[in-house]
Amino acid sequence: MYVVPDLGVGGAERHVTTLLPRLDPQRFTSCAVCIGEPGALFSDLVDSSIPATALRRTKRQMVRALVDLVREMRRFRPDIVITRGYNAETLGRAAAFFARVPHVVVWVHHCGDPEPRGPLRRLIDRCLDPITDSYFGVAEAQRAFMTDDLGYPPEKITVVHNGVDPSLYDTTDDRSVLPELGVPADAPTVGIVAALRPEKDHACFLRAARRVADVRPDTRFLVIGDGPCREDLEVIADAAGLRANVVFTGARGDIPRILRALDLVVLSSYSIECFPMALLEAMASGRPAVCTAVGGVPEMLVDGVTGRLVPARDERALADGMLELLDDPELARKMGRAARERVESEFTLHRSVEGAQTALVEAARSAGIVRPARSGIVRPARPTERADRTDPVRLTLVLDQTFVGGVEVLMLGVFRHLDPSVVRPRLVCLREAGPLAEEYRRAGFEVEVVPRSGRYDPRRLTRLVRMLRTDRTDAVLVTHHHHAALALGRLAARLAGTRTNLVAAHDMDLTSIGKRCLPRWVVSTLFLSDALVLLGPRQGDYLRCEEGVARRPWSRTREVVITNGIDIGEPPTEEDRDRARAALGLSPDAFAVGIVARLSHQKAHQVLFEAVRLAAHARPELQLLVIGGGERESELRSLADDLGISGRTVFTGVRRDVRALLPGLDVSALSSVHEGAPITVIEAMAAGLPVVATECGCLPDMVTDGTDGFLVPVGDAAALAERLCVLAADRSLARRLGANGRERAEREYRISRTARSFEALLDELTGRSN
């Protein structure tokens, strides 16, 4: 959606009417919205079947205009909104934010403001910059203005030159239109095609015309266009005695025909001229030009080759340039041919549209949502893919605090295995450091805590923004169950101008217990994040079906699967098994079933306890090891007594040597009602154990039923008992399934592989991949 003040006659307005109809319809669906009146060029869009709407709102109706724009955006549901013109830049970007449009581009068509921007406008621009993905210009000369005067980040600026279709402009001379304008067909004729506005400096053109007429009184000057300065310019022409030499044609719809009648074209602007369409059209018509060297004009016109460049507001130099070409028709024709050739090689409309399409796609990738919004697995980058990089990606993991939980432990492992020449990670906590912070520090990683006074200190946001800017953070990562980080981390990333921000989801199936993995407000603002990192394909299916991810434009973002991982280590030996069984107090013939999990309702230990009771009738050698601690310990000890399995059940409590104990087990069990992609299952597979688990979370992505373990329905104690009995009765099957699990862990669940996947994703999203 292209949002503009209006579509009156002008180069910037013509840019809209030429660009939108020519965008590849297989890749782009376009519309335009005028905040004010439609303007003379509005019908050009309508005629080309581009939907166009004029809101007809005045400057005093800004609130109504904003409401109308939000309505139009929600109806059209654009992926990108382009704005051009001050009120369009302000209202269009604000409306895009409220309508949850994923991407916003400001297209600048001038090289300077007639008056310096006031503090209010600068403040508005600064506030809207975080939701602006790119600033497009039409000339390289704009870069200094956009960075120094407007304060736009240089990395967000892209230049796409204007262009014209040369086939629409005939280079042959045709002076038949001149008599219609009251000009002798054989008179030397100079034209200026520009809106009659102060910055075009027609007054300087008229003073130069007086000098030319003094030398060549038969010369005629066509002032083509209209605008607020017309009456004043007519007075100047009369006062200079140019009534017989100057014709004010007004706005014309036959510019190509008039250009064929001219001997040369003039542009006399003194400022904010960027890449004037009028000059491109003149060059395409094979006309030489005499132009002031302002803005992007020197990028278009090669002095001495396609025309003459003169200083701005220098009427003498402007007159001398006109006289040189009028006195030497052969030189003028030669320059005209060179001008046409330059347009054909550098400034065709096809080339301009292709550049615009590429820039729009890159704008969508730069900050956001590198769509398609569908699941995909990030493959670990090969070393050659990371060649020639200079600075590492600066990654900040933002948490509320560190808990001793799956994601915090996982990210510590990822941090340790990231290549420091590729990614430089650090941890920022919004509340307090937490119990794992010291482990991060001992591993050599920076840990910072955002100072706060009180639970709802609003200054945390500004402090976090300052931290990200000071560190020059490239990427921010937040996780699903840290709600303060989900809100403040992503917002701070936007305000700090961070290149990318990611959300990692590490749970699912929570609707079964009346909860959500991602809060509704997070789903409704996913477009503000550049990727949603998932643990497995099933998690993506769950979030889309049950929690509304990708159901609306604002709930879409790129979905990427990065599996959990651990340090796999060497395969356990018989000596490792013997030591572990001795530590657990197991007899040689015991069939040991272990569950490594927090003693919480999520893990549903009671289902496993019931399964052990059922299986023990057929397999009396079965022993249960409950490894972990938690709020249900007393309850579960009582349950073991009630079920009559306390004699075969050992509660080990929290153990720091779990991985050393695992080889002593015969099977790893998990009876959870909801899971993500539990690290304990990967550790069991790495220990060569078969896994018997409930079919929830990403477990079906991790365990192939009958190949490296068994899956049973959630809450089905009888099915769980039956699978335990099968393995207890056939120890060779248990060993075979465990060996398959070990191979899978080595292949898919190495922490180094997880780290490489994060590196590849960060490389891509920050634009640093080759």
TrEMBL record:
<feature type="domain" description="Glycosyl transferase family 1">
    <location>
        <begin position="181"/>
        <end position="342"/>
    </location>
</feature>
<dbReference type="Pfam" id="PF13439">
    <property type="entry name" value="Glyco_transf_4"/>
</dbReference>
<feature type="domain" description="Glycosyl transferase family 1">
    <location>
        <begin position="576"/>
        <end position="744"/>
    </location>
</feature>
<dbReference type="Pfam" id="PF00534">
    <property type="entry name" value="Glycos_transf_1"/>
</dbReference>
<dbReference type="InterPro" id="IPR028098">
    <property type="entry name" value="Glyco_trans_4-like_N"/>
</dbReference>
<keyword id="KW-0808">Transferase</keyword>
<feature type="domain" description="Glycosyltransferase subfamily 4-like N-terminal">
    <location>
        <begin position="9"/>
        <end position="167"/>
    </location>
</feature>
<dbReference type="GO" id="GO:0016757">
    <property type="term" value="F:glycosyltransferase activity"/>
</dbReference>
<keyword id="KW-0328">Glycosyltransferase</keyword>
<dbReference type="InterPro" id="IPR001296">
    <property type="entry name" value="Glyco_trans_1"/>
</dbReference>
<feature type="domain" description="Glycosyltransferase subfamily 4-like N-terminal">
    <location>
        <begin position="404"/>
        <end position="568"/>
    </location>
</feature>
<protein>
    <submittedName>
        <fullName>Glycosyltransferase</fullName>
    </submittedName>
</protein>
